[in-house]
Amino acid sequence: MKDACILTSDIGTSSVKTALFDLDGKTLATASQAYTTRHERPGWSDQSAADWWQGYQKSVRSIVAQQPDRSRQIAVIGVSGQMLGCLPVDSEGEPLYPSPIHADLRAAAEADQIADLIGREHIYRLTGNILDARSSLAKLLWFKNQQPDIYREAYRFLQAKDFVVSKLTGQLDSTDYSDAVHAQWLDLERRCYLTDVLQTLGLDARRLPAVHKGSDPVGRLAATSANLLGLTAGIPVVAGAGDGACAAVGAGAGMPGDVHACLGTTAWICGIRKKPVFDPGQRLFNLISSDGDAYGVFGTTQNAGHAVRWAMRLFTDADETTFDRLAGQVPPGSEGLVFLPYLDGERTPVFDADARGIFFGVGSSHDARHFRRSVLEGVALAFASIVAIFREADPVSRIRRIGGGARSELWRAMIASACQVDLECMATPSDEATALGMALTAGCGVGLYNDLGNAQQIVKSKSIEQPDKGLIAVYNRIYPLYAKLYEANKALFTAL
């Protein structure tokens, strides 16, 4: 078994990323295949499940071509994926309609209908997740209301990774706890479908797949799919898990007490807990861990790397190095220029799709460099606002970080100081954390590792960014002002 390896893929928002790992977590090969998102109407964002499967096939065949010998030593296959989808398939597993993805807002009226019939607070208390138009529960109701023929014909409604698993194994009846609870289909604590809620909404729980731990084997690679992929039939396939649940493991932070941050287009901080956290202000959301044995408590800022890329386009910076160099020419605090990074709404500490960005304190002495630095500092302060919520329950002194945005030394220093934490950089490449987390989860499912705690020991630390006392003093002065900007403008955002 020492030569065994693990094949994992992440069905992401823009592409499928596939990787082959050995049991020490070394990446043997990677491949990706892009696909498109359709925007048929304003607020609609959906994808073709056929594109997911075609992309998966191409990426796996690329892995086999790169590592033909090691591909014959694959001991288990795992698939993670984007969350908050809702794909209807018939009894043969064929898609009946494109899947609305996590960014899709078509079900706003259905979210309001659920709120009227069930109550937003009650849904949060049952699922640990915040009800809005992106909810898979709302999307399921949208199919019933707006596409009744599709709803009636649907044998199952699946998440992205569940569809690929169905293609691999030939069976349609599988999802995992993380996807099901984030979809608001599952009771967070009882681990069963919300049959009473579904019945009240006129929805049929029998159209939802059986729920498993992400590490549970749910079938074996079928001969037909094995031939398409260039693999050996019979390889165990686990249920898989949502990308957020897998990223914690890939960051080496998948056990109770661990905290990690992912600094990507959007960004989050996640703390693993033995029990879920029901925040009275509904500022945090909960996932069940990839092995089903714990809970990931998340706070999310909607515009992290996205805000930086927006500013780079605004100032025509060719690369992040140029952006950082010019931002670094301005003193900490941007000489009184404060940025609220709510460009496209926010999720934590305020859940408001109407919120928008603000540059506050603009003066004639400010130039483009100040705006660059204030964008970086604004996102750092957004992280600080999430850490402040976590600290209401538990101390936070160290955060393990992953994500492409963490490449910036300047930004890392800001985040460490604004949050007043040691920011630990993990050796996992930024674009492989989710895949590695899925690999370790899948390995636990077939006995390659004793458990997730044992498995994540292979994830190593690369460096630690410690907070700077001078920066702490600056951000302690700015933060109270930053924290008031949203409330002072909330009504104006709605009016706008």
Overall description:
The chain is an alpha/beta fold. The protein has two domains: 5-242, ATPase, nucleotide binding domain (Nucleotidyltransferase, domain 5); 253-427 and 466-496, Nucleotidyltransferase, domain 5. The protein has 18 helices and 22 strands. It has helices at residues 49-66, 68-71, 108-117, 120-127, 136-146, 148-153, 160-169, 177-182, 195-200, 223-229, 243-250, 305-314, 320-327, 368-390, 409-419, 433-445, 452-455, 469-495; strands at 5-11, 15-22, 27-34, 46-47, 74-81, 87-89, 99-100, 156-158, 175-176, 211-212, 217-220, 236-238, 241-242, 259-263, 267-273, 285-288, 295-301, 338-340, 358-360, 398-402, 422-426, 461-465. It has a seven-stranded mixed beta sheet, sandwiched between helices. Strand 14 and strand 15 (267-273) form a beta hairpin. Helix 12 runs antiparallel to helix 14. The longest helix is centred in the last third of the chain and has 27 residues, at 469-495. The chain is globular and about 70 Å long. The model has no long low-confidence stretch (mean pLDDT 96).
Describe this structure in a few short sentences.
The chain has 496 residues and is α/β, with parallel strands linked by helices. It has helices at residues 49-66, 68-71, 108-117, 120-127, 136-146, 148-153, 160-169, 177-182, 195-200, 223-229, 243-250, 305-314, 320-327, 368-390, 409-419, 433-445, 452-455, 469-495, and strands at 5-11, 15-22, 27-34, 46-47, 74-81, 87-89, 99-100, 156-158, 175-176, 211-212, 217-220, 236-238, 241-242, 259-263, 267-273, 285-288, 295-301, 338-340, 358-360, 398-402, 422-426, 461-465. The protein has 2 domains: 5-242, Nucleotidyltransferase, domain 5, CATH 3.30.420; 253-427 and 466-496, Nucleotidyltransferase, domain 5, CATH 3.30.420.
